[in-house]
Amino acid sequence: MHKYSHFLLLISVLFITACEKEYEFQFDSPKKIAVGETFNISVKELNDQPIDKITYSFDGKSIDKPSKIDVSNERLGKHIISAIVFYGTKTKKLTNTIVLLADKEPTVYNYKIINTYPHDVEAYTQGLEYKNGFLYESTGRKGKSTLRKVNLKDGKVLKKIDLAPTYFAEGMTILNDKIYQLTWQNKIGLIYDFNDFKQTGTFNYGQSIEGWGLTNDGAKLIKTDGTEKVWFLDAETLKETGFIESYSNKQKVKDLNELEYVNGKIYANVWQKNILLIMNPKNGAIEGIADLNGLEKEIAKTQNLDKNDDVLNGIAYDKKGDRLFVTGKHWGKLFEIELVERQ
Fold this sequence. Notes:
By secondary structure, the protein is mainly beta. The protein contains two helices and 29 strands.
């Protein structure tokens, strides 16, 4: 073929290509929505180009109808919505992030002090639990971390073991005659026999970042890692099986620390905040907030507190007696309190 013909062919191809409109997609979905509401998603092609088909998914699960999507049974927090667009011989995947919020404002609680008990001011309290009339406590800091059994009435330590100096102990809980204790940044938990405190094993963390708070619901271990996430661990394998995220009707709450399971709800304190969160274990919704600022003021009457360190930490619940106990790091008192809805 003549060189001139090649040149004309090339010009023609370039002209046709230039005349073809490029595909440009717009994926519309809400950024935030209350979990009790439904919402719509859609994809538009902005240059009037034909689309053959669009498929949608929510966290990888197929969505049959992109209108009035119901997420009432989903956990709160971040989720991924995807659309795959089919056009001609091509496909394009589009993704958006949506945040599910609680559908109600949390109930606010004040408190009443029912009883006050002595507490070891040397205890850098990380975890606290009540069982059979005694308190079990995990204390932190490298070289000072302990696991201890404590007399509730006088605060005396009845049994104690010291952890290896490489460990910074964190939360603890008791389940099936075993004590489970977290370490902060070593990525392992320690397992003890409940009766003699002899270590019987360890377990590794999975996707959770660090070890902060620990409790159980009678079947699963429940763990925080310092973020807004609350992780669930299989009691037999100690593997993480899933998580929820702590959200109110407005925002996430991170720095979740010490935990306690109380009457079907997760109680959590927030690092350096004198509050207790009451969370729904199914979806992470913050259903209540207890303002405990007055307790720190009570402690400050007789102690000089480091406000950045000597903070509220330690929640225990006596299910049989329906008693709630709280204390703090280096606090010389432990309080039995009753939560009272603010009017």
